[in-house]
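Let's practice the habit of predicting before peeking. Look at the sequence and jot down your guess about where helices and strands might fall. Then scroll down.
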Amino acid sequence: MEEAKFGDYVEVHLGKTIYEGVLLESPEVGICLLKLDNGYNIGFNKKDIVKIKSIEKAKETKNKFDIKQDKTKPNVALIILGGTIASRLNPGKGGVDFVESPEDLFKYYPELFEKVNISKVEVPFMKGSENMDYKDWQKIANVCEKYLLDGTIKGIIITQGTDSLHYSSAALSLFLRNLNKPVVFTFSQRSIDRASSDAELNLECAAIAAISDIAEVMIVGHANSEDDFCYALAGTKVRKLHSSRRDAFKPVNRKPFAKLYKDKIVLVSEYNPRDEKKKPFVDDKFEEKVALVKFYPGQSPDILDYYSEKGYKGIVIEMMGLGQVAVSGARLSWIKKLKEVQKKGLIVCAAAQTINGRLNPKVYVTGRELLETGIVYLEDMLSEVALVKLGWVLGHKDWAKNIETVREKMLENFAWEISERLEEE
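Done guessing? Here is the structure:
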């Protein structure tokens, strides 16, 4: 044990069997705890260990990174919100934990400063994205507004956890109106202190996107599992489609805005160009009492009573195929209940379970029967985006007063959330 310290990457020798991983502090006396390369922890009885050999010393974390200002480079504001991209291994806890300061993030990836001058850094909060809600989206939007109105700032980079990143990007796509410069979300699937971390390429590409001509809210991250290039994805046409791969986020029904390499940008599809003359503003009204319901075979329509009785203002139903749920003739038809709850004032919208493709309730007789109940079919809008947009639309009390106005606003294209034609990656 004298050779290795907690946090070191080590070999643990148990006779002929050798394990490799990061040496962790153990809460139990007599137990040696190791974090394996696959992320799992394993414990050994110290009596069974022949030796522990240190292969790589733990990275020093005490010295702070010196942020050098370079006024010859374009200024970018960085907003740090937590998530894996702002985390590193905590040997004492046996898992990744948030960094203590922005400098702890910067020192792992000084390459970020080769392209831009990080002139402003803000940390509104540090939390896992699964703990975020609309109040956090509002807070982020208001921080962004300050830098959107700052003529010295070329663009904004936001680092966040991946689990609800596409909800956040959808929210800011709607909250930030009359956008004049890039707002770029980026992330990592692996903590910054891991050699296989995807944070380096994502941050460098995010910097390129932030000073580009693309005045959009976008997500920038790995386009494949290699360190080749990133995509700049529209904030309303993207979804996390893998739990752990580097290229977890994929474009849906729309091509990316651009391909981003470490040294260049290749524009791919239409976007709103940078316009410093525009005066952006925040429109973050939001109705919290909205829900997303996934229909499944045999599901009782009584679930709709719950939302109606609990005072919900609107729901989005993820429907099957081109927009189907059980109708007349089925043992558990939804037709009668859908009419009842909508008559009571509950707004019901439809999105596709299939993710890719567009709803079309007029193809089948069953779809036409559902359409007649008053459901708002949301074309190719992603269900997560539909949920956020419904909360945003209903948050405008003057819109929410009239069902026809709500319908019109839900089908109005504010931020590429509805595609006139479907495009593949």
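How did you do? The chain is about 20% helix and 25% strand.
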